[in-house]
Design a protein that fits this description.
The chain is of the alpha+beta class. The protein is built from 22 helices and 12 strands. α15 (380-394) runs antiparallel to α19. Bound molecules: protoporphyrin IX containing FE. Keywords: Coiled coil, Heme, Iron, Membrane, Metal-binding, Monooxygenase, Oxidoreductase, Transmembrane, Transmembrane helix.
Length: 567
């Protein structure tokens, strides 16, 4: 056989094979596509029973085939993306992330219902639960159903107003460090301001350059707020008077927990799940193991008698939990819910939940402080009223600029909200306009009618709490920062404001740390913020404006503040 003949034979048999393969590939593709389409139709069933509107009736922003609106969304501006569409498309609309539909809700009735239906008829997105499980720290925030109920039963009683009131001395101890740190930032920013805009004493020529503004010199420094929130949270959770049980670097190391959780929350390919772990992942594992061991050591050394003798002092969440778990068997018949729940708690439950509390209370509180500083800087009249309130109770600023933690602590009474009503109004107003968590996601676990629309089980949705509260604001000028609206209003307006104060969530899953957080904020504002006139540093018009950056909790970007001492 000639070489040409052989080549022709091979080519013919290859073509037959290719034709056969093509038929097989086409067959498999048709079957897979039809399975995928059936799955998609069942999973994302748009239909509604007769007489109801359903997801198919919702308006939506135009997008691309298959990709939907994915290219219009940015992870760091996700809240702004969804909120802007909410203002345009109304209280219910849908958007597509790839081919997957998401319902976006922003009416007060829908938000109310969503909060009430959780955690049983509505759950958090499955990703949240998985993420915290994979991170080996399942806790209240990520749990669902009965596991959630169990954790909630013992966590919430550790965070009541009465318990957190006892944390005053711990907070004032750390607020003194916050004061020192802000005094340092104040110096740095004043030097920078002087460098940018030197005081002109003798100007030789009107053409002389005398503005040296340089955006590269500007840095956002939120570290003092982070340190404050973190130290309070760690002490309150387990560390207070137990520092000797921890490795000296544990506090520093714990910060890796946040970085790793954040990183894992947004990674498209979770390599860590397949055993591909880098140095951060390994450090994370070591830190969690160290923490568990330290907690075991603390527990081994507890003496319930000594603890009971010190009942007026603050007990850490770990202490009260452990003591509850140790209650005598013969008290079983009239055990309180927290004690009953604590009896079934394991070390893993404890560690998971303590870390959850730290994670949930750390950047929420520090970012809130930053937002408040910004709001005050932009609203000098409100800032003046805040300063007047603090001065009326503490005396002139120069006095509290040097007060010790004990002296500061002695000033606060148990009802710090009544003691500092304007301060509280500033916090509420910032939470209304710049909440750190204004987007909550979830998934239905059964068919539900929300705001007149019938949504099928497994519908994924986003609830925009800020838009809902702004839409139905009961007092004038909804977009303006006016703390007075919380004080100078009718009882009915106040009731409505309180009902829509969703900065801490709502319903059975409302933030259990809200009393602790509010107290931390009040103490920081009156003891430290009011020592300064907070002002934005001057910038040219073309400089980037303040924006909220996400995705976990919102943090302002492009904000640079001067803290000008009043003392
Ligand atoms: C200014 C500070 C804080 C803000 C703005 C805030 C906000 C929130 C919000 C909006 C939720 C509800 C999330 C949702 O429903 O999906 C929540 C839940 C939660 N927060 Fe906070 N929080 C703050 C501080 C704290 C602190 C200090 C702690 C810890 C003691 C804490 C612990 C939690 C936990 C454990 C949950 C989950 C509750 C559950 O699912 O049952 N938070 N927080």
């Amino acid at each position: 056989m000639s070489l040409t003949q052989r080549a022709t034979d091979i080519w013919q048999s290859a073509s037959q094979l290719t034709t056969k393969n093509n038929v097989i590939i086409a067959g498999v593709s048709v079957v897979s596509i039809s399975i995928a389409v059936r799955w998609y139709r069942r999973r994302y069933n748009d239909s509604a029973p007769p007489g109801y509107k359903g997801r198919k009736d919702l308006p939506y922003p135009p997008g691309l085939p298959v990709l939907g609106n994915a290219l219009q969304l940015s992870i760091s501006k996700i809240i702004a993306n969804f909120e802007n569409w909410a203002w345009e498309y109304g209280t219910e609309y849908k958007a597509y992330v790839g081919p997957f539909p998401i319902v976006v809700l922003s009416s007060t009735t829908a938000i109310d219902q969503v909060f009430k239906e959780r955690p049983y008829n509505i759950r958090r997105s499955a990703n949240t639960e998985k993420l915290f499980e994979d991170c080996n720290i399942p806790g209240l925030f990520s749990m669902e159903g009965e596991r959630w109920r169990h954790s909630r039963n013992w966590m919430a009683p550790q965070l009541t107003q009465a318990k957190t009131n006892k944390a005053g001395p711990v907070m004032t101890k750390h607020v003194v460090s916050l004061r020192t740190a802000l005094q340092e930032i104040s110096k740095t920013m004043e030097e920078l301001n002087e460098k940018f805009y030197p005081s002109i004493t003798s100007q030789e020529s009107s053409h002389q350059t005398n503005v040296f503004y340089n955006p590269k010199d500007l840095k956002i420094d939120i570290t003092p707020f982070r340190e404050y929130a973190f130290s309070v949270m760690i002490d309150f959770a387990f560390a207070h008077e137990n520092n000797t049980h921890f490795s000296p670097t544990l506090f520093q190391d714990l910060k890796i927990v946040f970085d790793v959780i954040r990183r894992r929350a947004i990674t498209p390919i979770p390599l860590y799940k397949y055993g591909i772990r880098d140095s951060m992942d390994r450090k994370y594992d070591r830190t969690i193991t160290d923490l568990k061991n330290s907690i075991k050591r603390i527990i081994e050394e507890y003496t319930p008698e000594e603890f009971k003798q010190n009942e007026d002092k603050m007990s850490t969440m770990l202490e009260s939990l452990y003591i509850a778990a140790q209650e005598e068997e013969n008290e079983k018949s009239n055990l309180k819910t927290a004690t009953k729940a604590a009896k079934r708690v394991t070390i893993d439950d404890i560690v998971g939940n303590l870390i959850t509390a730290i994670v949930a209370g750390y950047d929420t509180t520090s970012n809130s402080l930053y937002n408040i500083a910004y709001m005050l800087a932009c609203n000098p009249e409100a800032q003046k009223k805040l300063q007047e309130e603090a001065d009326s109770i503490f005396g002139p600023p120069e006095k509290r600029a040097t007060m010790s933690a004990e002296e500061l602590s002695a000033v606060f009474n148990d009802d710090y909200i009544k003691q500092f009503p304007y301060t509280n109004a500033v916090i509420q107003e910032t939470n209304r306009l710049l909440p750190v968590a204004s987007l909550l996601d979830g998934q239905l676990t059964k068919d539900l009618v929300i705001d007149g629309h019938y949504y099928r089980k497994k519908t994924v949705f986003i609830a925009l709490t800020r838009v809902a509260a702004l839409r139905s604001c009961p007092t004038p000028d909804p977009f303006k920062f006016k703390p007075e609206r919380w004080i100078e209003c009718t009882p009915e307006e106040r009731r409505l404001h309180d009902k829509m104060a969703w900065g801490f969530g709502g319903g059975p899953r409302v933030c259990p740390g809200r009393h602790l957080a509010t107290m931390e904020l009040v103490i920081a504002l009156v003891a430290v913020f009011t020592l300064f006139d907070i002002q934005p540093i001057e910038k040219p018009w073309t400089a980037p404006h303040a924006v909220e950056a996400n995705p976990t909790t919102s943090l302002l970007d492009n904000v640079h503040l001067r803290y000008i001492p009043r003392y």
